[in-house]
Design a protein that fits this description.
mainly beta; eight-stranded antiparallel sheet; Alpha-Beta Plaits
């Protein structure tokens, strides 16, 4: 399903497709395919079966050599073109001469489903023809030029789930602010109640029902959390009933503006970060690197992010008394779950604006961005000097993007 949906509900339907099989597939298993190794292939019929209902329709074929032994049809769909509610059915199909037949019950609505399929193959292209009956309504189907897919291909498109790394070696390999939680449908409310006490931020999209939810029976939620509290929140989530898996995405964070520094002097005996002291040191280093004045430093109460605001003169015309305000967002956390002897600061975002410092009424300004090469962004001058400036102030090292490792001191 390409779009999120708000609610899952029932739809009564009876399904009939007729399958005409090519001679090679029509032969009994005891003949042409005898002794051959089994194989599984798939067809994506989403554009043909319930296409107006935004369906995911997957036909799975079990073969022995060139002989079709059995099949299974998995269809997830909207219950109507104007609804966001979903239903799904999985129908095991058996070989009956030149036909595949089967019956089942829809997953959400518990309605009877009947399937008949007709299959014609010409070279590598396969055509499916038949009809779908839902109550008194019948929909005729003709799906042409279908190419078989491997299990890897269909998994990448429909059947796979995002990987979760339970305990990454360090946070250069996984982003420490984002926990990923798998929880059964019946455990979602309990998980939400547990999260209310943790002062975290839940990514809403994970709550929306989807074909993946109907297929696997669980939600996968992203929970954004203060990097300094991630270990405690992780331990708490492991105890919540219905949670089957919790950890981090194995995708590495952007390390281009990261700095690794010894925690000694910045954490107390219990490992708690001295945020006032560290924020002042980082802010002063940034101000020096950008020839600016430090205006403020502040830590976000939920995400624990450090925001540094700097100001420096910007007078293209004498007498205007303009200034550039630079806002820098950073994240600070331990190097790994198992040890906070080393810490890391990531520069996440840098933004700037021009302000009129004369008495009110003031001018307001916008900046027209110049055309730039793909992948490049316009940032305040001297932004690239910030990682090395922070590393020098904290007696740490910056990241070597070419070697993909920390620089040596």
């Amino acid at each position: 399903m390409r779009k999120p949906f708000a609610v899952v509900a029932a739809l009564g339907l009876t399904l009939g497709l007729v399958l005409a099989v090519s001679p090679a597939f029509a032969q009994p298993a005891a003949q042409k395919g005898k002794g051959a190794a089994g194989q599984v292939r798939y067809f994506d019929l989403s554009a043909s079966i319930f296409s107006e209902l935004g369906s995911e329709a997957i036909l799975k074929e079990n073969r022995r050599g060139t002989t079709l032994v059995s099949a299974e049809l998995d269809v997830c769909h909207l219950i109507s073109p104007t609804s966001d509610r979903l239903d799904r059915f999985v129908v095991p199909l058996k070989v009956e001469g030149n036909r595949l037949t089967g019956t089942a019950q829809s997953q959400e609505g518990k309605h009877a489903v009947t399937v008949n399929l007709t299959r014609r193959a010409m070279g590598d292209n396969v055509t499916f023809e038949g009809s779908i009956t839902s109550g008194s309504n019948t929909d005729n189907i003709r799906s042409t030029d279908n190419i078989e897919l491997s299990e890897e291909e269909i998994t990448d498109q429909y059947l796979g789930e995002p990987a979760i790394e339970a305990s990454p070696a360090n946070f250069a390999a996984a982003w420490l602010q984002a926990l990923h939680v798998r929880v059964g449908r019946e455990g979602l409310i309990g998980l939400a109640d547990a999260l209310r006490e943790q002062n975290v931020r839940v990514v809403y999209n994970g709550l929306l029902p989807s074909c993946r939810l109907l297929r696997f029976g669980h939600y996968t939620l992203q929970v954004d959390v203060d990097a300094e509290r991630v270990g405690a929140v992780l331990a708490k989530l492991k105890t919540v009933p219905g949670v089957t898996e919790v950890g981090f995405s194995p995708n590495p964070p952007n390390m281009q503006r990261a700095v690794r520094f010894p925690s000694a002097g910045w954490r107390d005996a219990s490992g708690k970060l001295d945020r006032d002291k560290l924020g002042a040191a980082i802010g002063a280093a940034m101000a020096k690197a950008m020839s600016a004045t430090l205006v403020s430093t502040s830590w976000d109460a939920t995400m624990g992010e450090l925001t540094v605001e700097l100001k420096r003169p910007d007078e293209p015309v004498a007498g205007l008394k303009l200034a550039q305000l630079v806002t820098i967002l950073t994240v600070v956390g331990p190097e790994s779950l198992s040890s906070n002897r080393q810490s890391i600061v990531w520069i996440e975002a840098i933004a700037s604006r021009i302000v009129d410092e004369r008495p009110s009424p003031n001018l307001t300004f916008s900046i027209a961005t110049e055309d730039s090469s793909e992948g490049q962004t316009s940032e305040p001058e001297d932004s690239d000097s910030l990682p090395d400036a922070i590393a020098a102030a904290l007696k740490g090292v910056s990241w070597d993007s070419d070697k993909e490792q920390w620089r040596r001191q």
